[in-house]
Amino acid sequence: MKSFFRIAMLVVMIFALAACAKPTEAPVVTEAPVVATEAPVVAPTEVPLSANEQWAKDNGLGIYQPATDDWAAIEAAAKVEGTVVIYSNSSRIAAAGEAFAALYPEIKVEANDMGGAEVVSKVREEQKAGAYAGDVWFNAQGPDMVGEFMPNQWLWKFVPTDLLAVMPDENQNPIATHSTEVFGFIYNTELNPDGCPITNIWEVTDATWKGKLFIKDPINSAEDLGMLMTIASHADDMAAAYKALYNAEWNTDAAYDADTLDAGWLWIKKLAQNQPVGVAGSDDVWGAMAVPGLKDNMLGWAPLSKYRNVIKGDAVFEPCVGLSPVIGAQKHNYVAVINMAAHPNAAKLFIRFVLSQDGFTPWNQVGQFSGNTSIVPVDAALAFKDLPVYNFDNDFVYKNITAFHDFYALSLLSQ
Q1: Tens-of-pLDDT digits for all 415 residues of the chain?
Q2: E strands within 14-165?
Q3: For residues 95 and 347, what is the distance between their CA atoms, to the nearest angstrom?
């Protein structure tokens, strides 16, 4: 009986303890902390070079030209190449080629004397066909160069680093300027012993000179039309010159119409309406208005390099010094390495040569000046060195020549 009582008490105590015990809490679940992570850094994908750019890089041209040219290495490589092919619009390239060959007899010179338009066509066709034959571009066709050839990487700039200090920026860009040449208005000195009979550029549009201005035909000569366009592009100067001559605003002129967008366009229109005589070449200009013994007073537009005929006694003309606002325009003759040239080192060597004193000799004449300002012009050229001119505007001419060509032609027919 006592045993049963103890067992019963024990059971009661176990239940009592169980009732008093703290209930078990549910386990606390904790999430792992969120760690902010940055997106993985991906290196920018390098844009692959075009085949033309890779070639230029391999040959140290354009932006890939080293800070200092290694002329010993260039000369050695040029002699191994053994040839240099030049496409030029200058007849004097033959004389320069002979002088270069005498200096480097290991290098055969193929100096091709072409017209400027032919150089453009030949290089364009070769580049499009992948038939790379030319090495050196020697040409004055700046509009085609800046508008088509440079964007298509058909030409590569090369300015010898040892000449950078003596070539102004305008003679280094967009490619090297071999020489500059001034085109301007000229007059017959026998018939005008006191000087040019005009003092303002608008006077060439006056009735006095109708049919009496000789010019290489702008309809067929993109170069000469481009010169006139360059003058016309300075509309503000042309407007000021008009007012100075006529004491009136340019848009009060009887020829002003909706087709004359500014004073420059008006000048082109009136010039064409005044029936200038378009001839085949620059020699025909002075040959018509500046040979000795003429009786009829006429004007001309020509490159001042033709002054060599005055020095020889064959012509009697002078530039219209003092003409307002400018006497004319200055063009740049350019030299560069043709894309994918088979002989790039020989091309570099030739470019350096024609930018040197000896190499420039065939062009060192009156009216023409080296892109290398350390080369002293011949004495006869000094009088023309600082004439007021506008630099040929390659970009403006490239973008607008078709419009101006048509405008000039229509104006020519309107009288």
Answers
A1: 334 334 333 333 333 333 434 443 444 444 444 444 454 554 556 789 999 999 999 999 999 999 999 999 999 999 999 999 999 999 999 999 999 999 999 999 999 999 899 999 999 999 999 999 999 999 999 999 999 999 999 999 999 999 999 999 999 999 999 999 999 999 999 999 999 999 999 999 999 999 999 999 999 999 999 999 999 999 999 999 999 999 999 999 999 999 999 999 999 999 999 999 999 999 999 999 999 999 999 999 999 999 999 999 999 999 999 999 999 999 999 999 999 999 999 999 999 999 999 999 999 999 899 999 999 999 989 889 899 999 999 999 999 999 999 999 999 998 6
A2: 83-88, 108-113, 136-139, 155-156
A3: 17
Asked if 101 contacts 353 with a C-beta cutoff of 8 angstroms, the reply is no
Residue with tokens 């386990």: 27
CB 324: neighbour CB atoms within 10 A?
A: 18
Q: Where does 29-141 have alpha helices with state H? A: 51-58, 71-81, 93-103, 116-129
Instruction: Tell me the CB-side half-sphere exposure of residue 201, using CA atoms within 13 A.
Output: 27
- In the chain, the domains with their CATH numbers are 51-180+331-386 (3.40.190.10), 182-330+394-413 (3.40.190.10)
Between CA 74 and CA 69 the distance in angstroms is 8
Bridge-based pairing state of the strands 328-338 and 389-391: parallel
Q: Is 203 left (phi over 0), alpha (psi -120 to 50) or beta?
A: alpha
pTM: 0.85
- Alpha-carbon gap, residue 297 to 189, rounded angstroms: 10
Pairing of strands 317-319, 328-338: unpaired
Using N-to-C axis directions, what is the helix angle for 344-354 and 71-81, rounded to 10°?
Answer: 120
Query: Under DSSP, is residue 317 helix (H, G, I), strand (E, B) or coil?
Result: strand
Neighbour count for residue 51 (Cβ, 10 Å): 12
**Rounded Cα distance, 323 and 380, in Å:** 21
